[in-house]
Amino acid sequence: MHEFSLVSSLMMLIEEQARLHNAKRVTKVVLGVGRFSGVEPDLLKLAFDTFKEKTICEDAELVLEIEELTLRCRDCGKESVLRERPTKKCPSCGSLNTEFVAGRDLYLKSLELETD
Predict the structure, then answer these.
(1) How many Å apart are CA 80 and CA 78, to the nearest integer?
(2) What is the CATH number of the domain that holds 89?
(3) How do residues 29-53 score in pLDDT, each as one tens digit?
(4) Helix or strand or coil: residue 87?
């Protein structure tokens, strides 16, 4: 269950940002979670709830914004959301000159902090 190690690293990042902004509490944590990031959202929430006890995030709400896998074609310029099996082939023109631009990452989007 790698979600626990991910949340451990996330907590360090949150605490660092809270220190930089002289925050007393974190009230909200928003994460971008790609559908193909390899992260299980329910396990991520469980890990966050476990790690946040007795920290600056103790009362924080965790919001997960799930992102679909999105492919951009370098030839025709179109972006396509891939809901089925991932492929590098552009659904519009058939080119393999493509790149994934969303849906594979896990990242911290925003924090809401209380500074008193």
Answers:
(1) 7
(2) 3.30.2320.80
(3) 999 999 999 999 999 999 999 999 9
(4) coil
Tally of domains within the chain: 1
Any bridge partners for residue 73, and if so which? 98
Number of residues in the chain: 116
Does the structure show a pLDDT above 90 at 76? yes
Helix, strand, coil fractions of the chain, as percent rounded to 5: 25, 35, 40
Distance CA 51, CA 90 (A): 41
Work out the percent of the chain whose per-residue pLDDT is above 90: 92
Structural domain boundaries enclosing 57: 3-114
Question: What's the rounded Cα separation, in Å, for the pair 116 and 83?
Answer: 44
Residue indicated by tokens 């809901």: 83
